[in-house]
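Morning, I've got a small favour to ask if you have a moment. I owe you a coffee for this, so here goes:
>
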Amino acid sequence: MGNDVVNIGSCVPDDLLIAECRRHRPDMVVVSSVNGHGALDGERLITALRAEPDLSRLPVVIGGKLGTRGSSVFGQRLMDAGFDAVFEDSAGIEPFRTYLESAPHAVELEATA
């Protein structure tokens, strides 16, 4: 879709994601889950990211297989935890594409103190 993407791998530790966000200064972080642990890992990850003052406003979305018993029960919980959007695997890729098309192209981040 014309975006530059930096893939930092699978099962990324929170501290590595935070360091890579500071290094690359992305417009958005996209977390994808295929193993059914997205809700559990995502909630921990977004809590750590939002605790960092210089990254607290960075748009972060999550999608995919968020739970081993289906994803639909996790959306509101993940939004409440701090994600900007949650995409259920059962809805397919179209809602995510629509979100990307409407997302701002630049995010002003606070400088690290």
